[in-house]
Amino acid sequence: MNYKExxxxxxxxxxxxxxxxxxxxxxxxxANSHAILVKSIPAENEIVGSAPEKIEVWFNEGVGxxxxxxxxxxxxGKRVDNHDVEQGLTDKSYLYTTVSKLEPGKYTVRYRVxxxxxxxxxxxxxxxxxx
Length: 131
Known about the structure:
The chain is an alpha+beta fold. Helices cover 22% and strands 35% of the residues. The protein has one helix at 3-31; strands at residues 37-41, 47-48, 54-59, 69-74, 86-87, 94-98, 105-114, 120-129. The longest helix is centred in the first third of the chain and has 29 residues, at 3-31. The radius of gyration is 23 Å and the shape is elongated.
């Protein structure tokens, strides 16, 4: 094997290694770019003394305005929010929905948002009133 062939083999190996490194970096970036729920009012598993007028959630990044959903469901499986999810005008990480007068009991909040990387993120948490 001459020096020219050896150099070409090294270059190909270096190109493959660079491609692997770039792919791993891309995977790391994508894994960290999903929206994550970071705060809610009421908080997850919180027991509140009185019924809230709205349910508020914040994510670690701004989320898309399309496909957003925020639903409040009572312990019987009935949706009790006013179907009026809104997004903050200046803070795109903030969503809220209003609720009618809620009775004491356990409630589940379900959310769906689109991350900056275009992945749909869903989740849920619970809170209770007076229990």
